[in-house]
Amino acid sequence: MRIFVSSLITGMEALRGAARAGVEALGHQPVMAEDFAARPASPQVACLEGVRGADAVVLILGARYGAKQASGLSATHEEYRAAKGARPVIAFVEEQGAAPEPDQADFLREVQGWEGGLFRGGFAGPQDLQSKITRALHEWQLANASGPLDPGELLGRALALLPARDRNHHYNEAVVALSLAGGPAQPVLRPSEMEAPALAEDAMQAALFGPAKIFDRTEGSEAGIRNGMLFLEQGDRHRRSVALDAQGGIVVSLALPRGERRDHWMPVLLEEKARDAAAGALRYGGWLLDRVDPTRRLSHVAIAAQIAGGEGLAWRTEREHAANPGSVELPSAGRSDHPPVHLAPAHRPRAALSFGAEQLVEDLVVLLRRQWRA
To answer: What Pfam families does this protein's entry cite (predicted)?
Structure first.
């Protein structure tokens, strides 16, 4: 594999040499700026091409930030931004020496604040760095030792996870369902792990009280195994639910509140409510995936979404609804068969669930709106 080594060059020669030795110890090819042959492209372009052509990136950070490029970022910071979400990043921070420069302190906070996006650790000197790079790369290989990623199969599983239309839902009640399928395809939960009380308890605790909560703590909830999947359900007709399968596939369904006037209900589906539901479902799905696959054997995810029910509801933004709250132009005919939507390409690096969640939700909601109004 090709491993790009990203760091300052001047003043870090010994550390870069240790990184080279750590990568080569496993038979991998280090990709390093000092090895680039003369080429017409600028060093900046050459390094960013090196990042994009690598299988993983080793990031080494010390106290100095480095010279800023035209972007306002250092070369190392640009390389990190290019890799984040597109390539696995294994970061190492020097634990001894001078305090980091202000810009470097901000950079360190960005790297360390990227939840679930990378492996990271400290080091003390070249020899320590070399051994830790070798060990981290080996552990990453083991965690991802599986078959090749099949995008079509991944999307197929994400679509299959979405629930069939529930005839019990009221005709004008809309439910957002969002599914995540992880790949390369492989089991991440044994049957005994699926039925372990701790998993259901942790999942329910997070749904009710965690930072990614999606359930109402004032309502009763239940958990159980059905058709080999773990289910969490809440509310009449299970208006909020989570399902998890043995391959780490997750689907979260959340009923949308209906448009209201002060004196009566209006047949409106508000876009902002759909966005909030999709964002909550994606946030909880990412948490649950980290809970069942902490070593990230599932490196990519396919995401699909669907709105079930809601026949006869008009799609509006809150601004549109506020401008004309007393009347609404209803669709000429209600639909009960809105097909699911997905991004193109459908699969994304798993880290996108953390750093790119807002963009993912925005794009999915746009696709849902286009389909609803078509």
So the answer is: DUF4062
* Contacts of 283 by beta carbon, 8 Å cutoff, 6+ apart: 211, 212, 357
Tokens 């997070």 identify what position? Answer: 206
In 174-291, where do the E strands start and end? 174-183, 221-226, 229-234, 240-244, 250-255, 268-270
Nearest to 121 by CA among 61, 211, 56, 161: 61
**Domains of the chain, each with CATH number or no CATH:** 2-143 (3.40.50.10140), 151-373 (no CATH)
Lowest mean pLDDT segment, chosen from 174-183, 275-284, 303-312:
303-312
Torsion sign over Cα 207, 209, 214, 216: positive
Q: How far apart are CA 145 and CA 40, in angstroms?
A: 38
Calculate the alpha carbon distances from 52 to 55, 80, 103, 239, 302 in Å: 8, 11, 25, 43, 21
Nearest alpha-carbon partner for 282 in 309, 302, 298: 302
- Is residue 314 within 8 Å of 331, Cβ to Cβ? yes
Average pLDDT over residues 27-50: 75
Residue carrying structure tokens 């746009």 = 366
pLDDT in tens, 60-105: 999 999 999 888 999 999 999 888 867 888 899 998 777 899 999 9
Residues whose CB is less than 8 angstroms from the CB of residue 300 and which lie 6 or more positions away in sequence, other chains included:
149, 154, 182, 183, 184, 347, 348, 349, 350
Contacts of residue 355, defined as CB under 8 A and 6 or more positions apart, other chains included, come to 84, 85, 114, 117
